[in-house]
Amino acid sequence: MVRFLTSNAVALEARSDGLVDQTVRSIHDLIRGEKLQVGQALPSETALAVRLGVSRVVVREAFRSLAAVKLIDLGTGRRARVAAPDSSVLALTLDHSVHIDQTSVQQVLDVRRTIEMRTVALAALRRTDADAVRIATFARNMSDDFLNGERVMGHDIAFHEAIAAASKNPVFELLVGAFHVVTRQTWPIGWAARARDADRRAVIAFHVEIASAIAAREPQRAERAMAEHFDNSTKALLAAGIT
Amino acid sequence: MVRFLTSNAVALEARSDGLVDQTVRSIHDLIRGEKLQVGQALPSETALAVRLGVSRVVVREAFRSLAAVKLIDLGTGRRARVAAPDSSVLALTLDHSVHIDQTSVQQVLDVRRTIEMRTVALAALRRTDADAVRIATFARNMSDDFLNGERVMGHDIAFHEAIAAASKNPVFELLVGAFHVVTRQTWPIGWAARARDADRRAVIAFHVEIASAIAAREPQRAERAMAEHFDNSTKALLAAGIT
DNA sequence: ATTTATAAACATGTCCTACAGGTATGGTGA
DNA sequence: TCACCATACCTGTAGGACATGTTTATAAAT
């Protein structure tokens, strides 16, 4: 993988009046410049404060900013370390966006459908045997815990996460992970909307079918099943008044 | 390439003790509880400090955390206000992920392709006349500024952004916007990899074709053109050694 | 009476000092 | 060699102080 070392900082609050923002950029550049990898430690607050000519308070606030977007990890008594990105930040953004009425649940579902139709196809192509087993297991767990909605939801989410992992693309994994936050809030509604046992069994059947297609390495079949699964969910939520 | 992507549950900052994290949650709950809308003001730092029984430092760090993920806006002398989510946070995450070698450019491209095939189809269905004009204009601008790579890139990015906007789904807009950060770094490489004018013209032809399909309200044609466009770019970057 | 100018009240930005408590490191003793 | 502990280092939180920016209310001017 060729590296383009234009460590040009991403418009990270481009123009800033404040020392904190400047410090955030300095630290950002520092990580880039020293090519720090995940887990490596940054200088201590005091050391940075001296080096950058600001007070420790400023460095602390800058650290908090970077930690909030998961660029670094903080811990009492330990120096800050470079962190691996995770989905929590995007999850927060989405969650907030929905709550603030900037986005509808259906819109989120459309995006999920788009993405997961791809992840499932990739999973069918790139899954390891262990992936296939994991995925199938979650589908079976859904069936086994049929009476306990809470647990079915847990398996459902784990199922989709496992598929994303099997796609071998961390960006997809990131996105799928982020959507779970919204899923957790809407899933019970969709489950309740499917009052009849037959409808609930159908939901699980979709998962079994998807797992089977992945195991058989049939991307198109997997994709089709995933699409139907989402269409079914979309309808259920619509029926429950979730737009 | 080593990966750590810790995709795990999330929501409101793990149960990490620490007054700052608790305060972040409190403020988060406050926004939810009071159903504050974008633009509305939060209590002042001092007021919150008193109310939550913590020092002002703690509230400030909590504010910084929330501002870093764009849940609130901060400004000197002004009270903090609820903010609308934007793509900069995810952009940072992606950028960081690529720089830390957690993600390859090709993986990002795959995600982009997946998403933009959908946005372009939606755009073809839901575009307004103004959207169609905007999109076509950017394509024409690319052609007009053919000799100036920097400007072509600008039009290219604006083109894709306009399509996302025409999809009328803010989540897609958010995602597409976030990818631009990576695009800005890889685009010049792809352009350089297409040494012959004919190859460069072909790139622009794809955009013209996409714009035309959107104008004609032909989602499938638009989708196909977009797919070809991405396949072409993927190949160009591969040829340049970008994996 | 409406508008403008100005002053006061309020809010954030930054610094300093202080100390409690967590972490890691190295040395000592078994 | 290994376990244990003292110690130096580091982060977490508090309170006070003051500069600077913003809003509001009052007063002056048209």
Structural description of this entry:
- The structure is a homodimer.
- Chain A contains ten helices and two strands; from the N terminus they run αααββααααααα.
- The first copy, chain A, has about 240 residues and is mainly alpha-helical.
- Chain A has two domains: about 20-80, Orthogonal Bundle (Arc Repressor Mutant, subunit A), CATH 1.10.10.10; about 90-240, GntR ligand-binding domain-like (Four Helix Bundle (Hemerythrin (Met), subunit A), Up-down Bundle), CATH 1.20.120.
- In chain A, helix 4 crosses helix 8, helix 5 (about 105-125) crosses helix 7 (about 150-165) and helix 5 (about 105-125) packs across helix 8 (about 170-195).
- In chain A, about 45% of the residues are buried.
Q: What order do the helices and strands come in, and which of them pair?
A:
2 copies of one chain form a homodimer.
Chain A: H1 19-33, H2 45-52, H3 56-68, E1 72-75, E2 78-82, H4 88-99, H5 105-126, H6 129-144, H7 149-166, H8 170-193, H9 197-215, H10 219-239
Helix pairs in contact in A: 1-3, 2-3, 4-8, 5-7, 5-8, 5-9, 5-10, 6-7, 6-9, 7-8, 8-10, 9-10
The first copy, chain A, binds a DNA duplex (30 and 30 nucleotides) through helix 3 and strand 2.
